[in-house]
Design goal:
With about 80 residues, the chain is an all-alpha fold. Helix content is about 70%, strand content about 0%. It is built from four helices and no strands. The relative contact order is 0.05.
Length: about 80
Amino acid sequence: MSPKIENVVKQALELPSQVRAFIAERLLESLDFEEPFEVSREWKNEINKRCRQIDQGNVQLIAGDKVFKQAIRNTITNFY
């Protein structure tokens, strides 16, 4: 690895964890799509609606690991 890249990594690792998480998310997002894409108006409206519901406390959030465990259980139960 080049010294310049090593220096960038070293500096990044010295940042607060929230900043590192933000940078990591942006870097990962940059790998997801080769071309930019448009989100339809309907999806934007749905996203905004769900965010409002969360912000206003109108929905109960469930941890992802719990959701996936239940989905796996349901899949196994329905398969057999």
